Amino acid sequence: MLVKCEWKTSEVDCKKLFQKTKSTGGFCCSFNYKGLFVGDYGPTNESENVYVGGVGSSYGLKVYLDAELSQYTTTETAGFWVLVHNSRDYPDVLVYGTHLELNSQMSLAVRDSILSSREEIRGIDVETRGCLFTGEVTIVYVLI
């Protein structure tokens, strides 16, 4: 299925970039996914994350795919589902995914945003401020 992969302008073995993971649509190939790979299911080590070195399509990830139609048993549509999500979120491809038809090309732009607050905000109750500071609650991670 994964024919060729390029990362930051260089060809890379797809097996080094992607892991087989379970999603709402079955098994998928995940890039930079941390949700179920952390030993204690707590926050990941920041150095384990994958970052691009610049902006523009040549600095990101390019993947060339083969649908391998002869391998299909039953399916509603031919092609691929693509989902870009937070590396810690479960891949809910059936709700948030975008369908990529056969013999087509897709380009996705990813924009980041940073939300930060001053320490004084911590004094406002959580319900009013609508956000959490690191360490304010214990999050329980559940294997699915």
Automatic annotation (TrEMBL):
Record-linked Gene3D superfamilies: Acid-sensing ion channels like domains (2.60.470.10)
InterPro entries: ENaC
Location(s), subcellular: Membrane
Record protein name field: Uncharacterized protein
Membrane topology: Multi-pass membrane protein
Recorded superkingdom: Eukaryota
GO molecular function, one term: sodium channel activity
Any Pfam family: ASC
